[in-house]
Amino acid sequence: MGMRIGYGFDSHAFKPGVPLVIGGLKIEHDEGLAGHSDGDLLLHAITDALLGAVSAGDIGTFFPPSDMRWKNADSTIFLETALEEIATAGYRIVNMDCVLILMRPKIVPIAGEMRARVAELLNVSQRDVSIKAKTPEGLPQEGTAVAHVTVLLESIPEPEEETHKRITAEADATEVDVVVRTLMGDDPHNMRRLGRKPTFDTDDLT
Ligand code: MG
């Protein structure tokens, strides 16, 4: 089975007077993230990781900031396009690991909710999405939020391939059953008819 990895990075500066949205989740805070779209850096990094995994370019390829259509756009639109790209390429998500680096707000209290929202948007199980948050210790990024994302994809098996495998497995099981019955007759413990020596052979005692 083919596998691919992808990596995405994004950063946005905090800005007063705009709503804060991270991972598709609206968060109560006194500042939001500046950006051409809604500034959702986590969805942007996830979008780039997915596109990168299938070598389909990046978020700017599909949604150039110069295009006014994407002004204040909901970043779930970008994510949906990336999901379509990986599906078209024949891949699906195995798991994803995300790191957010920001001083405020604290992510830990809302990490579960954010993880659930991201999993919902990706249409995967929550156990396949990890979101970790760090404070920027020693980094001069007080007014900035940063996101790093890695994703693993696997190729989607062809439907015919799966059907063929199942039929072959069933045929193999039937053939084995016939051979076993032919060799062993009614006694499933008749090891001699199978040509095997029992582990304890009474002949050895004579
Ligand atoms: Mg961005």
Give your account of this protein's structure.
It is a single chain. The chain is of the alpha+beta class. It folds into two domains: 3-155, 2-C-methyl-D-erythritol 2,4-cyclodiphosphate synthase (60s Ribosomal Protein L30, Chain: A); 160-205, no CATH class. The protein is built from five helices and seven strands, in the order E-E-E-E-H-H-H-E-H-E-E-H. The chain has helices at residues 41-53, 59-62, 76-88, 111-122, 159-184, and strands spanning 3-16, 20-22, 25-27, 31-33, 91-101, 129-134, 144-155. The strands form two sheets. Strands 4-1-7-5-6 form a five-stranded mixed sheet. Helix 1 runs parallel beside helix 3. The protein is elongated, with a radius of gyration of 27 Å. The relative contact order is 0.18. The mean pLDDT is 87. Magnesium ion is lined by residues 10, 12, 35, 41, 44.
Structure summarized in a few sentences:
The chain is α+β, with helices and mostly antiparallel strands.
- Number of distinct beta strands: 7
List unreliable stretches of 5+ residues: none
Tell me the fraction of residues in β-strands, as a range.
25-35%
Shape annotation: elongated
Structural class: alpha+beta
- How big is the Rg? 27 Å
| Helix/strand order | EEEEHHHEHEEH
What's the number of domains?
2
Mean pLDDT: 87
The CATH architecture category of the largest domain equals 2-Layer Sandwich
Largest sheet, spatial ordering of strands: 4-1-7-5-6
- The percent of residues in helical segments reads 25-40%
Biggest sheet features: 5 strands, mixed
The hetero compounds bound to this protein are: magnesium ion
CATH topology of the largest domain: 60s Ribosomal Protein L30, Chain: A
By DSSP (H or I, 4+ residues per run), the number of helices equals 5
CATH class of the largest domain: Alpha Beta
CATH evolutionary superfamily of the largest domain:
2-C-methyl-D-erythritol 2,4-cyclodiphosphate synthase
How far apart are the first and last residues' alpha carbons, in Å?
56 Å
